[in-house]
Write a structure and sequence with these properties.
Blueprint: H1 12-16, E1 26-30, H2 36-43, E2 47-52, H3 55-67, E3 72-76, E4 89-95, H4 103-108, E5 110-121, H5 143-148, E6 152-162, E7 168-177
Parallel strand pairs: 1-2, 1-4, 2-3, 4-5
Antiparallel strand pairs: 5-7, 6-7
Length: 183
């Protein structure tokens, strides 16, 4: 997490789409880490359930939320195991996490008309010398749109973008809506 007193910055993809978050909407943040996206959505008034397996990261998120008066339901969950039973959400955040086998579960956890904001690394990331290297954690070009089908893609991209002055990242990003007629 960022230094004491500073919120970790959310992804630019989240920032570009933060207008989607409004008071009272239910949001699930999968593999939330220290909660940079949970904190940003909660600051916009959303009701957040944040799941991650890392107890230390969750504690950092709790401390940051408490210091800002933000209410977030932080839960330690091993996402590789059974997920807790949860009511459907208006939005789901999935950043830097990929579990191809759970994509239908993620889609089904959205209310009809609910949105998915997802961003994760492309295979090109390997060449950049940091980040994930295993195939199961990296998307092939064009794969994200296939994984979220039959959702309606509202905005998507595959880019190489700067993280800071020395590092770049290769990511695929999407904002998609669960169609009303989806099973």
């Amino acid at each position: 997490m960022a230094s004491e007193g500073r919120l970790p910055l959310p992804s630019t993809w989240f920032t570009w789409h933060d207008y989607l978050f409004r008071p009272g909407m239910r949001v699930l943040d999968l593999a939330c880490g220290d909660g940079r996206h949970s904190l940003a959505a909660a600051a916009r008034g959303a009701d957040i359930v944040a799941l991650d397996r890392d107890a230390a990261a969750l504690e950092q998120g709790r401390a940051a939320a408490e210091s800002r008066g933000l209410q977030i339901d932080w839960r330690q969950v091993d996402l590789a195991s059974d997920w807790p039973a949860l009511d459907p959400f208006d939005a789901i955040l999935v950043f830097n996490y990929l579990d191809r086998g759970r994509m239908s579960s993620i889609r089904e956890a959205l209310v009809p008309g609910g949105v998915l904001l997802m961003e994760t690394f492309l295979v090109t990331q390997r060449e950049l010398g940091w980040g994930p290297t295993a195939d199961e954690h990296l998307l092939a070009r064009g794969e994200l749109a296939q994984l979220i089908a039959p959702m309606e893609v509202l905005h998507g991209r595959e880019v190489l973008e700067p993280v800071d002055v020395e590092r770049w990242r290769a990511v695929a990003s999407v904002v998609a809506r669960r169609r009303s007629d989806e099973p």
